[in-house]
């Protein structure tokens, strides 16, 4: 009985110790917050709720678990000046775990340091001095487009990569991406093949009439050499501040970048580096709308053209082969929706047949599979039907979303005529 009681006591102690340790573990996504600062009072209470936001990811900073160990009531505030992107880091906690041979608190600043703007502040008074010295209306680059969203004016610029002040600014602003783009890396600004576009918001304080101009988005493009005398522009990074997402800013930025790259006489086609699902949806909508308008203007009926003609037409607009197929499918899907159920079924059947052919090609005559079979290693049989159905359902779903947005957009235009 005594042994049993001792065992229970030990389990209770271990349980309490585990619970105690858990109070020192924090999810970085919960304790890290960003705030855009225009004036000193933004340090205390945000003038707008939209000035503050949380990160989407932190595994590059704090490891795969994204956990921070060793602190109670931890908060990490990353304050960025609205125009210059100068930064202040404010780490607060109520208690730190005593250091021992068995446990040690994580070094937060060591983890953050590689991903923060150079010369970031850790003293509030130093940052307040930066606020007082901030130039609120600086814009880098040549303005190539303007647009209005929700009564706010925006300018899109193409930046001068030789401008040292711009490079310093971009190195500060691009530090946001590690928290929002998986596997993000900072680009080499000494490589002249990079082109960077920025979106600036013009804002006027209704109480003081003071004017502000703030960078809210950027896009980087790398111009790959294409033999013998062409280039292949590739969109690499595409970032919109969380405070400005879902307002059409990304759509306007992509459309402007696409038109600029399309106009380059030596550009063969425009590609994107590993597009995220969110970016692919934006790209599908913009490319499809652009081509739809051009087809309408030139009175071309997509349904009467064969794939070869359509692909040649899309390549003329410098849309790369894979994206050209998607744009064709989106517009064909839009057309068959208008023409009735039977036409839509015929369209989906053609898509399924194409996917079945692709799956068959991939599984038939694979050199690797043949080599394995020759050595006597049996491979798992491929369920082609299940594979085709899965790919088909996934692809049709990916088409329906831009089709729905395109249809809604065109309906609004028609209603406003």
TrEMBL record:
EC number of this enzyme: 2.3.1.48
Reactions accelerated catalytically: L-lysyl-[protein] + acetyl-CoA = N(6)-acetyl-L-lysyl-[protein] + CoA + H(+)
Family matches, as CDD domains: NAT_SF (cd04301)
GO BP terms, alphabetized: subtelomeric heterochromatin formation
SUPFAM superfamilies linked to this entry: Acyl-CoA N-acyltransferases (Nat)
Database matches in Gene3D superfamilies: 3.40.630.30, Histone acetyl transferase 1 (HAT1), N-terminal domain
Cellular component GO terms, alphabetical: chromosome, telomeric region; nucleus
Ranges in coiled-coil conformation: none
Keywords noted in UniProt: Acyltransferase, Transferase
Keyword Cell cycle: no
InterPro entries: Acyl_CoA_acyltransferase, GNAT_dom, Hat1_N, Hat1_N_sf, Hist_AcTrfase_B-typ_cat-su
Domain annotation Histone acetyl transferase HAT1 N-terminal: ranges: 26-182
Domain N-acetyltransferase: 210-266
GO molecular function, one term: histone acetyltransferase activity
Family: Belongs to the HAT1 family.
The name this protein goes by in its record: histone acetyltransferase
Organism of provenance: Asbolus verrucosus
């Amino acid at each position: 009985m005594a042994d049993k009681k001792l065992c229970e006591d030990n389990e209770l102690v271990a349980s309490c110790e585990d619970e105690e340790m858990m109070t020192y573990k924090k999810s970085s996504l919960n304790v890290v917050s960003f705030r855009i600062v225009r004036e000193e009072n933004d340090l205390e209470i945000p003038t707008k709720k939209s000035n503050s936001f949380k990160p989407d990811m932190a595994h590059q900073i704090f490891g795969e678990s994204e956990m921070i160990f060793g602190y109670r009531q931890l908060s990490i505030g990353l304050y960025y000046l609205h125009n210059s992107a100068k930064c202040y880091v404010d780490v607060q906690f109520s208690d730190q775990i005593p250091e021992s041979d068995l446990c040690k608190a994580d070094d937060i600043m060591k983890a953050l340091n590689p991903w923060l703007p150079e010369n970031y502040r850790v003293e509030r008074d130093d940052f307040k001095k930066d606020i007082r010295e901030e130039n609120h209306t600086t814009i880098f680059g040549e303005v190539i487009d303007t647009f209005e969203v929700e009564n706010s004016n925006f300018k899109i610029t193409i930046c001068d990569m030789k401008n040292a002040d711009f490079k310093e600014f971009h190195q500060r602003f691009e530090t946001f991406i590690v928290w929002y783009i998986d596997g993000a890396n900072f680009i080499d600004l000494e490589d002249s093949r990079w082109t960077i576009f920025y979106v600036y918001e013009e804002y006027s304080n209704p109480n003081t009439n003071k004017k502000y101009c703030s960078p809210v988005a950027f896009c980087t493009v790398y111009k790959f050499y294409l033999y013998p005398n062409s280039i292949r522009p590739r969109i690499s990074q595409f970032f919109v501040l969380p405070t400005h997402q879902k307002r059409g800013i990304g759509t306007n930025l992509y459309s402007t970048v696409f038109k600029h790259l399309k106009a380059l006489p030596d550009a063969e086609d425009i590609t994107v580096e590993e597009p995220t699902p969110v970016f692919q949806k934006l790209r599908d909508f913009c490319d499809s709308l652009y081509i739809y308008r051009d087809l309408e203007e030139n009175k071309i009926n997509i349904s009467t053209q064969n794939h070869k003609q359509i692909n040649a037409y899309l390549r003329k607009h410098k849309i790369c082969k894979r994206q050209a197929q998607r744009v064709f499918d989106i517009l064909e899907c839009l057309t068959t929706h208008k023409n009735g159920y039977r036409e839509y079924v015929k369209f989906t059947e053609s898509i399924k047949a194409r996917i079945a052919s692709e799956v068959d090609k991939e599984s038939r005559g694979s050199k690797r599979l043949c080599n394995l079979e020759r050595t006597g290693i049996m491979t798992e049989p491929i369920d082609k039907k299940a594979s085709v159905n899965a790919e088909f359902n996934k692809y049709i779903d990916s088409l329906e979303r831009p089709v729905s947005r395109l249809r809604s957009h065109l309906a609004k235009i028609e209603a406003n005529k």
